[in-house]
Design goal:
The complex is a heterodimer of chains A (about 450) and B (about 150). By secondary structure, chain A is mainly beta. Chain A is built from five helices and 26 strands. Among the domains of chain A are: about 5-35, no CATH class; about 290-449, Beta Barrel (Cathepsin D, subunit A, domain 1), CATH 2.40.70. The longest helix of chain B is centred in the N-terminal third of the chain and has 14 residues, at about 5-15. Chain B has a seven-stranded antiparallel β-sheet, with helices on one face. Chain B is built from five helices and seven strands, in the order ααββββααβββα. The chains are: A mainly beta (about 450), B alpha+beta (about 150).
Chain lengths: ~450, ~150
């Protein structure tokens, strides 16, 4: 294994993230600049600053405390947030997670306190948002900011300021706590980041339900809370016009606004200490973002009413199963799929990751979400490594990381999430629905580096 | 199947005694309460061993409830453009799910999939962009020969 140097602090953090298995290596730590034999080399693709790109990196992250969760395969960018119309009043936020599985910029409120950003306000008061994940969620006010990503800017963009001041008057209401399964993420250690840069396949983070303010059968996503409210008790469910909802920053650019291209270096074997790449804005808008004729391309399903299983999904065929709940996602840190075959990939004993004794080369086929066209099926090969062995290293980037929740009951394959490992060694195009080039539906495309 | 009269009676009893818990494991008549909450269109497809109640919102969101010959909901499936309030959908099975979800959520970070599996209850949920989908079933209540592939593919 190649030797690599880390600062002592970074090494300690990374080791802490790996759990008990790495304890014996702690004796190797003698100070900054130490030779960390469990870290692999850093990998990168060449980066040249242009008008429509930023550098991004998979690295250890901002956590300033010990975490029980390995910080693996989290992709970060640096984002500049400014008072609307005032390029002199800005704050730069590092370690914002790049997420193609959500929409909107959400940053810890404490990172922009000096700016006094204007709130997004309805007649009934400033707008607050409860943003749920499948489990867990975020609570915070919304604000208007000019968001700068490299030389690109999204002017007067509604963003969410994640409430991370436990002493603030307006904490998450009970309905939001319920929506978040009792776990509102309100710190960089809980988030694994200082914020989320949601640049997924659509423009709005909610849509019709929030436009109407009709949250029947769900949880309230947007509230208005009267100015100077003393608690969330005075917040009420709100109908929020589309131009006031938290919005995809890329779609809000004046140009280069129809998608992104992510290029990350290949990451093999036990991983890489860090992996640095390029996020390019726009597709077919400039010389550096042309869709290659040889790229593979699949369309996401858009037929919500008759084919809900495939909506915003591609179709993956894996070991004889057809899986309609499937997508590419930088916000997912592994390849997540259930191997229901007769001789399934071995699982780790103490986690839901896969742990084959040696690396396995596996194959799946990716096709359109709706209207499966056989001629549009693309074979994709991927590696499944031993997750326990990967986590014994101090690396942050793992190309061979795969898992699935344990499942004793035999059920049909539920989903196949192509998380960050898919992106290593590829140039991946992700278009945004309703923008130029994806008016009839979003698509993904990719080519090998 | 229950007669219409018995159904109406059970509906009243549920509303009076236990309005929050109507869903998986509960009687078919409780579906009326879901319909009210979602402002949904309700249709029923009758199969030999069970029936499928489909509740559809104006934005196309579906919640389907599978009802066995004993009149009880043995499985639910959802495809929604919002995070569904599972406390009403899972009924009496909700507390077990809620505890398990809370523990998993403690992990933090962005989470896109969750699975709870205990002796009798299986819940699988995914969320990506603003699309939430999932299913839940009670193993012990599945009609004999019922194929689980039915509930995820329908």
């Amino acid at each position: 294994m190649l030797k690599h140097f880390l600062t002592g602090a970074a090494l300690l953090l990374a080791l802490a993230g790996c759990g008990g298995g790495a304890d014996s290596t702690v004796t190797n730590i003698t100070g900054p600049g130490l030779n960390a034999s469990l870290a692999s080399a850093a990998v990168s693709v060449p980066f040249v600053q242009r008008s429509n790109n930023i550098s991004v990196a998979v690295e250890a992250g901002p956590s300033n405390g010990f975490s029980l969760t390995p910080n693996a395969n989290i992709l970060y960018a640096t984002v500049k947030v400014c008072v609307p119309g005032d390029p002199l009043q800005c704050q730069t936020i590092d370690h914002v997670q790049v997420d193609t599985g959500s929409v909107g910029l959400r940053v810890l409120a404490s990172k922009v306190t000096q700016l006094h950003l204007p709130v997004v306000a309805l007649p009934s008061g400033p707008v607050w948002e409860c943003y749920p994940f499948v489990i867990g969620g975020l609570w915070g006010s919304t604000a208007v900011a000019d968001v700068l990503l490299g030389a690109e800017s999204a002017m007067a963009l509604p963003i969410q300021l994640i409430q991370d001041d436990q002493g603030a008057a307006i904490q998450a209401p009970l309905d939001c706590s319920n929506a978040a399964n009792g776990q509102i993420l309100s710190s960089s250690s809980a988030m694994g980041s200082n914020g989320i840069l949601g640049i997924g396949s659509v423009t709005l983070d909610c849509g019709l339900m929030c436009l109407m303010g009709n949250y029947a059968g769900s949880y309230v996503q947007y509230y208005s809370c009267p100015k100077d409210a003393k608690s969330a008790a005075s917040c009420t469910p709100a109908a929020v016009p589309a131009n006031m909802q938290v919005y995809n920053p890329v779609a809000a650019f004046a140009s280069d606004n129809n998608g992104v291209i992510l290029t990350l270096p290949a990451v093999t074997g036990l991983g890489a200490s860090t992996a640095s790449g390029e996020l390019i804005f726009g597709i077919n808008t400039q010389s550096n973002n042309q869709l290659s004729a040889s790229a593979s391309r699949v369309r996401l399903g858009v037929d919500w009413r008759t084919n809900p299983d495939s909506y915003m999904n591609i179709t993956t065929r894996y070991k004889g199963q057809t899986i309609r709940n499937s997508y590419l996602d930088t916000g997912t840190n592994g390849l997540f799929f259930t191997d229901n075959s007769a001789s399934p990939t071995a699982r780790c004993s103490n986690s839901s990751w896969y742990c084959p004794t040696s690396m396995q080369r596996q194959t799946a086929t990716i096709a359109d979400g709706d209207n499966l066209l056989p001629q549009n099926a693309v074979e994709v090969q991927f590696n499944v490594g031993n997750a326990e062995a990967l986590f014994l290293t101090t690396n942050a980037a793992f190309g061979d990381l795969a898992g699935a929740p344990p499942s004793a009951a035999s059920t049909a394959a539920p989903s196949f999430s192509w998380g960050l490992p898919f992106f290593y060694g590829r140039r991946v195009y992700l278009s945004i629905w309703q923008q130029v080039g994806a008016v009839n539906g979003p698509w993904y495309a990719w080519s090998s580096l | 199947m229950t007669s219409p009269n018995r159904g109406a009676l059970a509906f009243l009893v549920l509303l009076t005694l236990n309005p929050a818990w109507a869903g998986l494991g509960d009687f078919e008549s409780s579906i009326q309460e879901e319909k009210v909450k979602m402002h949904a269109r309700h249709s029923v497809a009758v199969k030999p061993q069970y029936s499928v109640h489909d509740l559809q919102n104006s934005d196309g969101a579906h919640i389907q409830q599978y009802v066995g010959s004993d009149g009880r909901v043995f499985a639910v499936v959802w495809h929604t453009l919002f995070k569904p309030d599972l406390s009403s959908i899972l009924g009496g099975s909700y507390p077990a799910y809620a505890q398990s979800a809370r523990e998993s959520a403690r992990k933090g970070g962005i989470q896109r999939r969750f699975r709870h599996e205990s002796l009798d209850l299986v819940v699988q949920a995914t969320a990506h962009l603003n699309v939430f989908s999932g299913y839940a079933f009670r193993q012990s209540m599945l009609p004999s020969g019922f194929s689980l592939s039915t509930i995820v593919l329908e």
